[in-house]
Amino acid sequence: MKTIAICNHKGGVGKTAASMALAEGLNAKGYRTLLVDLDQQTNATRQAGAKIEDAVTVYDLLTSFEYTAADGIQHYEHGDIIPGDTLVADAEVEMSKLDTPLTMLADALEGVEGNYDYCVIDCPPSLGIVTRNAIVAADDVIVVVVPDTASVDGFGKVYQACEAIRKNKRLNPNVTIAGILINTYDARGRLERSLDEQLPEVAENADTKVFETRIRKCVSVRQAQSAHISLWDYDPECTAAEDFKAFIDEYLNQEEN
Ligand SMILES: Nc1ncnc2c1ncn2[C@@H]1O[C@H](COP(=O)(O)OP(=O)(O)OP(=O)(O)O)[C@@H](O)[C@H]1O
Ligand SMILES: [Mg+2]
Question: Domain range for residue 237?
Answer without folding.
Answer: 2-256
